[in-house]
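FORM 12-B: Structure-to-Sequence Request
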């Protein structure tokens, strides 16, 4: 289980994500986390969208770039922005010469402790798989079955990559994702949540 205080270290970008609130603290209504991003690094997550939940980002220190609905923007310490359901976006990444820190708050329309655990668990698993050399430079699993299992979990909770149409991702998740799970692949592996 992912609880407040759990950290995720990204081997690819060297960012450190600290969970401030998980489902236990939010009654399953989302999460709050803080991310420290190193200078001269790329975003941790490619452009994506979620259909049901709202994200708020507040820059706590440094200078950040982010992308919202196809437009790259900049924010500095003390500034914030909101990503509403269905809006394409890329989370903040460092636009300065010092460590940039932001707070991210995700709010669901209804309680879903499983979504909190599974989405945060997917990110923790991807970081661990990256450390093992099983994730490519684009942040996606190299193994197609692992990718399909990951896709299945993210689409189940309304999270989508913007590079493929949503119906295609849903079809892949329902077919190849289900087969990947039958083969033993998972989006979340418990050994990476300790």
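FORM 12-B RESPONSE
SEQUENCE OUT:
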């Amino acid at each position: 289980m992912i609880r407040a205080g759990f950290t995720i270290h990204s081997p690819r970008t060297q960012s450190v994500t600290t969970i401030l609130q998980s489902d236990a603290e939010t009654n399953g209504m989302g999460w709050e986390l803080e991310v420290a991003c190193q200078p001269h690094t790329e975003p941790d997550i490619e452009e994506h969208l979620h259909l049901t939940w709202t994200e708020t980002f507040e820059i706590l220190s440094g200078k950040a770039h982010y992308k919202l609905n196809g437009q790259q923007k900049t924010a500095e310490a003390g500034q914030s922005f909101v990503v509403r359901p269905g809006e394409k976006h890329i989370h903040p990444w460092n636009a300065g010469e010092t460590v940039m820190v932001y707070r991210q708050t995700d709010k669901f329309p209804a309680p879903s402790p499983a979504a909190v655990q599974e989405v945060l668990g997917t990110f923790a698993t991807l970081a661990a798989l990256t450390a093992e050399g099983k994730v490519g430079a684009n942040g996606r699993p190299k193994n197609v079955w692992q990718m399909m299992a990951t896709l299945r979990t993210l689409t189940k909770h309304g999270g989508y990559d913007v590079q493929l149409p949503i119906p295609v991702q849903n079809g892949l998740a329902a077919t190849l994702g289900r087969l990947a799970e039958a083969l033993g692949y998972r989006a979340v592996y418990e050994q990476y949540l300790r």
